[in-house]
Amino acid sequence: MRTSLRTMITLVASLAVLAGLSAPQANAAVHNLCKEVGSYGCLAFSGYRPYTNTWADTRYYGGVHNCTRYVAYRLAKGGVPDQGTWGNAYEWWHRAPGAKNNTPAVGAIAYWSSDWTSRHWGHSYGHVGVVEKVNADGSIEVTWDSYGDNINVRQVVSGNHLPTGYIHADNAAIKRSGGIVDTPPAPQPVKDGDTIAYKGHVYRVAGGAPIYVTNFDHVSGSRNVRAVNDAEWNKLRKYPKDGTIIRGTQPGHKFTNSVFVIAGGAPIYVSNWDHIGGGKPYIDVDLATIFRADHGYPYDRLRARPANDTFLFAGGDGAVSSRTVYVVQGGAPIPVGDWNHIGGPRPLVTVDSRAIDNAGGEGAWQFLNKYPSDGTIIQGRKPGDPLHGTTYVMAGGAPIYISNWDNIGGEKTAYWVDLEAIKRAGTAPVWNNLRVNPADGTQLKAHKTGKGYVVKGGVPVAQDKSGDKAVTVDHVAIDRAGQAAPYHHLKAEVKPAPSPAPTPAPAPEPGPSGEDPQPAPQSDAPSGAASSEGGIIAGVIALITVIAALVGLPALVGGTGVALPF
Length: 566
Fold this sequence. Notes:
- The chain is 18% helix and 23% strand.
- It contains twelve helices and 27 strands.
- The strands form six sheets. The chain has a seven-stranded antiparallel beta sheet with strand order 1-6-5-4-3-7-2.
- It is elongated.
């Protein structure tokens, strides 16, 4: 059948119209749901704005449109701690954590390589966005921001506009930041080694307890952070369980990679694996948090000293304290010579004996006291001993006896120790975690009398008032200082002996008539001259007396007559 020219022209025109309708094939793979320039309206659902007060602003320049800042913001809002910078978008494939593949998932980072952006957009910086939805037809819904042209979009992409790949840094965090709530699978229990986020802080779990992470650069391992809810958080331990091994890491710090064993909630330094029986699995935690133990929230998941009644076994290589059992009271290790003295065996944590020997030291050794802290109440136990059950308050490293609870303000919790540790206080080699007498300068206050004292050479010396750090003690211990045990932990003041009285001169012999002797007349002349002159005069008087008697004159001495002139 022949076709008329008019029919042919009409057909060609129709084909041309159809061709015109299907011409934009290059853009058919992109469908913009929202596209704005200069504002942030397409991304406002997530809270994204010029300044977000997150680490994304610091790492990727707050105040400007930027694809990397937008994705970093979504991570930060979802609870991921500061990651530092991963550079330009094209660098993220190699620098960002998490799995990288061609499998899209809600919350994944959509990644376009520098080669793709060079071919399609004319620059080689690469590009990143967020996967908001995965469709059954293979297309995905993404959001992204853009530097330079200040465009922000929400769009559906498919075909050759699909991302080069997907980075699964923390899909859950990004989903949370966008307000996407799925029906999640049953959560897995939090386990050791997990990194979790709770109320704006990030923690590494060790021994069932959360240890605060001050900076992700301080810890190794996976940076995937799992947010936990109140119920999961409340199931965690307050402190890591005894025997947990942790390694403190903080690149550049002199103690980085130091190993510690948890005892009574505190990290006890391990100087050599052999001292605790060989190498063991450990969990990396932030070293900065170890050295800030007990410094308040969020550093309150490690103790600065082991809890009272924590029992230690000192392993080691022949050091002074090795192969000895200790009980920690007031932060100090007190030797236990016989289990029967304190009621029988208890669970032990094996620690490095060098930690015992260096108790009271600095740096990694700081987590044990040399002596129990002031005010700690201890009770000596040794059934059958006359001093069994005697109770003491620690002051300046020494136990001060309490004769009656009322004398220190009422009954308090007393912690058991081996009585032998009190009786042998200050003796070598292992009984040196108690002093015999308080350290000089220790301040005391007698509760009943209110009097204050300061210890000098073991003696409680009275002062006008007690200091702010005075330890409340029993006044009886002060009154009886220097007496036998249990009062011997304070010395009595030694008073100087009185000066000896002068030796009296011997009394003169009575006279022949029985009269009381008269004191000899004093002379200003030297004693030798007085003696010579007196002898001459006495001789003259005696001669005159004899002559007078011969001639009948009255005597000169003892008589009543007139003395002759001479």
